[in-house]
UniProtKB/TrEMBL annotation:
The UniProt record lists the keyword Ubl conjugation: no
InterPro entries registered for this protein in UniProt: AIP/AIPL1/TTC9, TPR-like_helical_dom_sf, TPR_rpt
Biological source species: Sagittarius serpentarius (Secretary bird)
Name of the gene encoding the protein in the UniProt record: Aip
Keyword Repeat: yes
Name of the protein: AH receptor-interacting protein
Database matches in Gene3D superfamilies: Tetratricopeptide repeat domain
TPR repeat intervals: 110-143
Role noted for this protein: May play a positive role in AHR-mediated (aromatic hydrocarbon receptor) signaling, possibly by influencing its receptivity for ligand and/or its nuclear targeting.
Keyword annotations: Repeat, TPR repeat
Subunit structure: Interacts with RET in the pituitary gland; this interaction prevents the formation of the AIP-survivin complex.
Length: 175
């Protein structure tokens, strides 16, 4: 198959370290474009590829060294974008894992708290969701309108679930 110049993308495993570093911003941009088009799964795959390139480079560095930290700081926004795609695809436990790993290293990452809060809310971890949203407000009070909307949505879902449970379990103990 003949491909147009510039359209061929080499697999990360076949790239040199320099090619990987040059490819990451391009792959990131492709992921952003796919996300804007509403193609969450495809965008997630692009972000994953970019993360893989950087992780491969990071493995060659001493953990905690300036180069390792610099690569880690490039991985974090890609991982947050990946998590946003996973939220869209309703893959909440993956979001919980990745956001928690980011927060273990960067305790003040507002986006990681927000995305983790949304994932906790989606899987009915109410106390954890509320704690994460409270942390978002503590770190960035300007996000109050967005956080309030998420908390109202969670409360509405809880009321709906309680109403369903009352109907489902009505009379179960009176027999």
């Amino acid at each position: 198959q003949v491909e147009a110049p510039g359209s061929y993308q080499q697999d990360p495993w076949a790239m040199t370290d320099e090619e990987k570093l040059q490819a990451v911003p391009l792959i990131h941009k492709e992921g952003n474009e796919l996300y804007r088009q509403g193609k969450g799964q495809e965008a997630a795959a692009k972000y994953y590829d970019a993360i893989a390139c950087l992780k491969n480079l990071q493995m060659k560095e001493q953990p905690g060294s300036p180069d390792w930290i610099e690569l880690d700081q490039k991985i974090t926004p890609l991982l947050l974008n990946y998590c946003q795609c996973k939220l869209q695809c309703e893959e909440y436990y993956e979001v919980l894992d990745h956001c928690s790993s980011i927060l273990n290293k960067y305790e003040d990452n507002v986006k990681a708290y927000f995305k983790r809060g949304k994932a906790h809310a989606a899987v009915w971890n109410v106390a954890e969701a509320q704690a994460d949203f409270a942390k978002v407000l503590a770190l960035d009070p300007s996000l109050r309108p967005i956080v309030s909307k998420e908390l109202r949505s969670l409360e509405a879902r809880l009321r709906e679930k309680d109403a369903e449970d009352k109907i489902r379990f009505k009379g179960i103990f009176s027999q």
